[in-house]
Predict the structure.
Amino acid sequence: TRYTMEQAFYREKLEERGIRVLVPQAPGRELVNRVIFQELCLGQVRAESRQAFLREMDALAAQGAQGVILGCTEIGMLVSQADTAIPLFDTTRLHAQRAVELALAD
């Protein structure tokens, strides 16, 4: 969401670990926020929104981004690794995988 992209909490935690954080410009942040709340949260998945997200990802890659964090549970409904060569980090999937690892640990 726009809040997550604009607030320092996550950015600071990543930067403390040596990860440089790039976020979309203001119009891109607005687009992401609108698509999440006015489409994905309502179960709507639109091809034009997918293309807009992919353009934003490409713009970040052009600025040097080596991967994109999908930091909202709904974004995985819209884009997947099959849509782009840019590595995607789907936080919903990553959290679930870690939970299973911890549950199955000795």
